[in-house]
Amino acid sequence: MPRPEPPDPAAHPRDLLAGAALHYGEAVVATWCGDLLTGRVEGDDEEHPPLAWLGGRVAAWELGRTAPDGEDHYWPRVWGARGLLYVWIPEAAAAVVAGLDDPAWRVREMSAKLVRLREIGEAAELLADLTGEDREPVPRVRAAAARALGAVGEGEHAPALRAAEHDGEAAVRVAAEQGLRELRGRLDRDL
């Protein structure tokens, strides 16, 4: 597969992904993003488009640097998830759900945002777990999970959101209130 670089690697990710979809096809790019997200392919895999289509200029730097011992090169997984904000196929849903359990918090956060945007209902149980301080140490992930749970959860997930309304972080409490409000509205009942 020819591997042309994007014409403007400083462009917004939305524009980079639109260009990649035009060049390679949306299904190919969305599949690639899902494979990056799950780690099935590496960012420098020669059989796939250059990572600059997702990560812009920073991608070349990230791939070229040597990670200290034990450091996870998680950015290609983050960029794969972010790419799914702009290109999509339903088959990518499983990769997004798997991303909720990634060791890197940025991957979990972006996956929760994707669940909300793409309305991936099968992620509800994992999201409920991620709203709790005892399960998820990063407030940004807990907040994203609470917002996503409002979009895809069911009545049995309301207790997780009610518990998150008492989180130690204000941003999580606000997100839990919003999520619970959305859940009530979506299900058209008091929870």
Can you offer a commentary on this structure?
This protein is mainly α and 191 residues long. It has two domains: 1-92, no CATH class; 100-191, Leucine-rich Repeat Variant (Alpha Horseshoe), CATH 1.25.10. 60% of the residues lie in helices and 0% in strands. The chain is built from ten helices and no strands.
How is this fold's topology laid out?
Blueprint: H1 13-24, H2 26-38, H3 52-64, H4 75-83, H5 93-99, H6 105-118, H7 124-130, H8 139-152, H9 158-164, H10 170-187
Helix pairs in contact: 1-2, 1-3, 2-4, 2-5, 3-4, 4-6, 5-6, 6-8, 7-8, 8-10, 9-10
Order of helices and strands: HHHHHHHHHH
- Specify the helix fraction band: 55-70%
Spans of at least 5 consecutive residues with low confidence: none
Classification by helices and strands: mainly alpha
- Beta-strand residue percentage: under 5%
Strand tally, please? 0
How many structural domains? Answer: 2
Give the averaged pLDDT, no decimals.
Answer: 93
Estimate the global geometry from the Cα principal axes. elongated
Distance between the termini: 52 Å
Radius of gyration: 18 Å
- The protein's oligomeric status is single chain
Sheet bearing the most strands, described? none
Q: What is the helix tally?
A: 10
